């Protein structure tokens, strides 16, 4: 199976950059913590910052980025893997596409089919490598991973520069988030993990949840993942999801939108400073 980038219909090669995009995985130990909402919102935040952004639906079992954004893609990752289309030809534009205000590109999965859940290891690894090549056309690439620590999830995570782990204060979320950090540390030690707390009732409560995860990581893994930020519980999030819009395009001054924007800025600022903090 060949996922390599091809030429455009007019024979031109795809737009490329000298430096590849920062590739950020968005992960969670369990479902239901707002991981896909976070991915979609961060994509809009990066676009608003003037960054050409691609959002990849990397949930190979239960893709739903297209549902959350209200788009109807003509093709998807399943068609790419089947060899029917090139990877770049499966890209769908949202709000005008990459380069537009709050617009970005999406590489969709196949919604709700589970068609890619059993993707062989070799094909998952080739897909990860091809995403790295596609990153040459963007400033930022976000990969919305499937929940959990399955092998293909970790293969995609390993192709990224950073990994944002989304958690909330539920005990199962915290336990599973720690498990993800532990497996990521062993499977892809070069990938920098960050923690974001979603749906926090207060800043103090969110910080308390982060500190519990950070302490466990420091005690048992020997490092302290930096905190990317806290998103407060906001009723406008539910409304944006119901309308199948990003909260950035619906109400950029909503509390959750402002909180997500701070996380986006932290992820872009990240680098030597954050690595030193986590050492």
Report on this structure.
The chain starts with 21 loop residues before the first strand and ends with a helix. The protein has one domain: 3-Layer(aba) Sandwich (Rossmann fold), CATH 3.40.50. The radius of gyration is 18 Å and the shape is globular. The N terminus and C terminus are likely disordered. It has an 8-stranded mixed sheet, sandwiched between helices. By secondary structure, it is of the alpha/beta class.
Whole-Å distance between the termini? 39 Å
Task: Based on the coordinates given, report the CATH architecture.
Answer: 3-Layer(aba) Sandwich
Task: Kindly provide the radius of gyration, computed on alpha-carbon positions and rounded to a whole number of angstroms.
Answer: 18 Å
CATH superfamily, please?
P-loop containing nucleotide triphosphate hydrolases
Task: List unreliable stretches of 5+ residues.
Answer: 1-14, 271-279
Given the C-alpha coordinates, what overall shape results? globular
Percent strand equals 15-25%
The helix count comes to 11
CATH class: Alpha Beta
Q: Output the structural class.
A: alpha/beta
Q: Report on the biggest sheet.
A: 8 strands, mixed
């Amino acid at each position: 199976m060949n996922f390599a980038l091809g030429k455009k219909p007019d024979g031109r090669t795809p737009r490329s950059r000298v430096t590849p995009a920062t590739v950020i995985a968005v992960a969670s130990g369990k479902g239901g913590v707002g991981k896909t909402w976070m991915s979609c919102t961060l994509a809009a935040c990066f676009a608003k910052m003037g960054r050409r952004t691609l959002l990849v639906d990397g949930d190979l079992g239960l893709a739903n980025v297209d549902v959350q954004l209200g788009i109807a893609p003509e093709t998807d990752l399943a068609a790419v893997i089947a060899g029917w289309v090139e990877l770049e030809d499966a890209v769908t534009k949202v709000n005008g596409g990459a380069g537009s205000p709050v617009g970005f590109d999406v590489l969709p999965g196949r919604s709700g089919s589970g068609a890619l859940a059993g993707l062989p290891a070799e094909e998952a690894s080739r897909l990860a490598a091809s995403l790295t090549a596609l990153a040459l056309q963007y400033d930022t690439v976000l990969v919305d991973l499937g929940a959990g620590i399955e092998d293909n999830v970790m293969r995609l995570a390993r192709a990224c520069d950073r990994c944002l782990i989304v958690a909330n204060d539920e005990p199962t979320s915290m336990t599973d988030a720690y498990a993800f950090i532990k497996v990521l540390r062993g499977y892809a030690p070069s990938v920098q993990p960050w923690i974001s707390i979603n749906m926090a009732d207060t800043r103090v409560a969110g910080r308390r949840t982060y500190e519990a995860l950070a302490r466990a990581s420091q005690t048992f893994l020997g490092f302290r993942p930096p905190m990317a930020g806290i998103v407060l519980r906001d009723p406008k999030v539910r409304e944006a999801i119901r309308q199948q819009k990003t909260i950035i395009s619906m109400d950029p001054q909503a509390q959750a939108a402002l909180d997500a924007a701070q996380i986006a800025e932290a992820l872009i600022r990240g680098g030597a400073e954050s690595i030193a903090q986590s050492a």
